[in-house]
């Protein structure tokens, strides 16, 4: 009787192995679900980025407003007969002037 019980317990363990650790086991499925969730999040970020870039390209192709804005902020360009005024806020300090190099000591 004891031998039959041990044999049945061994068979039960053998049946459980593929369920937990096999090719389609629960642990592997959980791992794949985590990978799929990460891929979905990354795809959503990339879709949002592509939509932003697409709208930016359309703006650059269709109108001059986007080109003018880029020229102003990235290249610090101003229009003709325009005066550039920069206001330094309380939290911002003006950049100190560069220091003159020290003469070498003898």
UniProtKB/TrEMBL annotation:
Keywords: Cell cycle, Cell division, Cell inner membrane, Cell membrane, Membrane, Transmembrane, Transmembrane helix. Pfam families: DivIC. It is a single-pass type II membrane protein. This is Cell division protein FtsB. GO terms for biological process: FtsZ-dependent cytokinesis. It comes from the Bacteria. One of its GO terms (cellular component) is cell septum. The keyword Cytoplasm does not apply. Belongs to the FtsB family. Residues 22-106 are periplasmic. InterPro entries: Cell_div_FtsB, FtsL/DivIC. Part of a complex composed of FtsB, FtsL and FtsQ. The keyword Glycoprotein does not apply. It is found in: Cell inner membrane. HAMAP family: FtsB. Residues 1-3 are cytoplasmic. Essential cell division protein. May link together the upstream cell division proteins, which are predominantly cytoplasmic, with the downstream cell division proteins, which are predominantly periplasmic. It comes from Duganella vulcania.
């Amino acid at each position: 009787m004891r031998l039959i019980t041990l044999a049945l317990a061994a068979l039960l363990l053998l049946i459980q192995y593929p369920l937990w650790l096999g090719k389609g086991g629960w642990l592997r499925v959980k791992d794949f679900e985590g990978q799929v969730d990460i891929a979905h999040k990354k795809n959503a970020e990339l879709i949002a980025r592509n939509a932003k870039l697409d709208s930016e390209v359309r703006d650059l192709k269709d109108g001059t407003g986007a080109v003018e804005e880029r020229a102003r902020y990235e290249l610090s360009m101003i229009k003709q007969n325009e005066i550039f005024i920069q206001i330094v806020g309380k939290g911002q300090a003006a950049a100190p002037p560069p220091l003159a190099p020290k003469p070498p000591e003898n």
